[in-house]
Amino acid sequence: MSASSLARETADLLARLGVADSAHAGGSLAVTSPITGERIAEVRETDAAGCDAAIAAAEAAFRTWRLVPAPKRGELIRLFGLELRAAKADLGRLVTIEAGKIVSEGLGEVQEMIDICDFAVGLSRQLYGLTVATERPSHRMMETWHPLGVVGVISAFNFPVAVWSWNAAIALVCGDTVVWKPSEKTPLTALATQALFEKAAAKAGAPAGLSAVVVGGRAIGEALVDDVRVAAVSATGSTAMGRAVAPRLASRFARAILELGGNNGAIIAPSADLDLVVRGVAFAAIGTAGQRCTTLRRLFVHDSVYDSLLPRLRKAYASVTIGDPREAGTLVGPLIDKAAYDRMQAALQKARADGATVHGGERAREDLGGNAFYVRPALAEMPAQTEVVRTETFAPILYVMRYTDFDAALEAHNAVPQGLSSSIFTNDLREAETFLSARGSDCGIVNVNIGPSGAEIGGAFGGEKETGGGREAGSDAWKAYMRRATNTINYGRDLPLAQGVSFDV
Ligand code: UN1
User: Fold this and answer.
1) Which of 59, 112, 184, 259 is catalytic?
2) How far apart are CA 490 and CA 484, in angstroms?
3) Active site residue 38
4) What Pfam families is this protein classified in (predicted)?
């Protein structure tokens, strides 16, 4: 495909998805496709006044939206899910073009949006509060969950639309409104998603201003973070970003939902089913070119299986097809940009200095464009869990370490600053249950006999320690998007005080 045809295809997709030309032509933010490194759009950025107006509109919309019964709010999300189904092929394709994901992963990302819409529709009839036993006669005590306000969503390039939808679908049924700052590397998929949302909102007869996209860099993100009208900010990205955002939110007592770095490990025990391991590790470590926050980055392999597993992994690593993610058969698309490639090479350099034997990791497919960065995924056999292993590098590097003692492996597994996702491959019940137990993995996601990535939306998603502690998507993650009121109602004629206090006037 020639340079101009990729830009043309992008423009056609955007037109079909309902995005006005003026939003993505002639603007100040150049968007490149990592597939070829060529420019595919010039997006208009939101200035400070525009950001202020978006927040003001969201705040105004919140005042009406919070009064709409939750199941009616769910109806909007049901209609949005239908728009996503109808547009799945186009939006998935745009994800592939803008973020470089292979076709099935681009489509999978849109499926994840559809799934969370379905979840949110059901949730809209299940925003339950508790009834609590009260110590006072003729009293009733209960909890009520109310809409919270404007929710700011800051998302990353690697899941350019799904992560927003986990937040937005839930926030909207909870009665909140949403202002979204997508990654400046992937504004097109955000504009397309917003256009689909607006279609659904028009069909639902929903008020204007429920959702807005603000496009730009750090300044726009800071505007959301610092604005007192924004009640909560859900931010996905690096730990460095979280460190900048969290104290600013804390200083104004705003709610923070943080999903930051992961450095996900897996333990391969002596009884592991190695066929499962090879497939599970390959998807988790190589999939999305190592650019998921749940990507498998550290592998602890028991001494007794190390020498049979490693050749199989090396074979899988050497055989995966790297290339244009639009082509059938490709499993590894490009890194997002040159900076990602440089960081990967720097990490491999450090690993070698620490004594690693590195297989792969070199640049590939330079024929696809000088400004496109494809790599052979890297396996780095490490003598120990050194500093570089404890650091998240957003690229396909799997650090492999041997172990002999299960408890020592568990300790090493937890000895990193991040705590997102984790796995054990074992058929030993004691090991599996220990890994899941209080002294097991310290992560927010803990799996047995499947890799750490590719979570379903039904569970709460997020992690501990430097991962930030936030939870998004399923289970009761919705509670972070609402405010809880504890209500005590006296239906008697007396006024008994709690704790037996007497106060007669
Ligand atoms: C992310 O990389 O920010 O569990 C999210 C997974 C996906 C989501 C990843 N469902 O890998």
Assistant:
1) 259
2) 20
3) no
4) Aldedh
Protein residues whose CB sits closer than 6 Å to any atom of ligand 1: 112, 158-159, 163, 236, 292-294, 453-455
Which of 292, 418, 471 has most ligand 1 atoms within 8 Å of CB, for mutation? 292
Q: Distance between CA atoms of 154 and 423, rounded to whole angstroms?
A: 28
Residue nearest ligand 1's atom 6 by CA: 454
How remote is the CA of residue 277 from the centroid of ligand 1, in Å?
20
Q: What is the pLDDT of residue 1?
A: 42
Write out pLDDT tens, residues 209-238: 999 999 999 999 999 999 999 999 999 999
Model confidence over 234-269: pLDDT tens digits? 999 999 999 999 999 999 999 999 999 999 999 999
Q: Using one digit for the tens of pLDDT, what is the confidence trace for 300-345?
A: 999 999 999 999 999 999 999 999 999 999 999 999 999 999 999 9
Tokens of 474: 């399923």
In this prediction the pTM is 0.97
Quote ipTM for the complex: 0.98
Architecture, CATH, for domain 264-461? 3-Layer(aba) Sandwich (3.40)
Cα separation, 186 vs 403, whole angstroms: 40
Q: Calculate Rg over the CA atoms of the chain.
A: 24
- Contacts of 166 by beta carbon, 8 Å cutoff, 6+ apart: 112, 116, 457, 461, 472, 473
Ligand 1 center to 462 CA (angstroms): 9
pLDDT digits (tens, 9 = 90+) for 109-130: 999 999 999 999 999 999 999 9
pLDDT of residue 3: 46
DSSP state of 7: H
Query: Could you give the residue range(s) of every CATH 3.40.605.10 domain in the chain?
Result: 47-260+468-486
**Distance, CA 98 to ligand 1 centroid (Å)?**
17
Our answer to whether residue 443 is catalytic in this structure is no
- Counting from 1 in the atom list of ligand 1, the atom nearest the Cα of 292 is 2
Count of helices and strands (H, E) across the chain: 16, 23
Residue type, 73: R
Cα–Cα distance, 149 to 232 (Å, whole number):
8
Spell out the CATH class of 47-260+468-486. alpha beta
Single out the catalytic residue among 51, 117, 293, 443: 293
Ligand 1 centroid – CA 293 distance (Å): 6
Mean pLDDT of the chain: 97
> Which part of the chain has CATH 3.40.309.10?
264-461
Report CA-CA distances (Å) from 467 to 196, 433, 437: 31, 24, 20
Report the SS3 class of residue 484.
strand
Centroid of ligand 1 to alpha carbon of 421 (angstroms): 10
Dist CA 285 CA 348 (whole Å): 15
Answer whether residue 460 shows pLDDT above 60. yes
The pLDDT of residue 2:
46
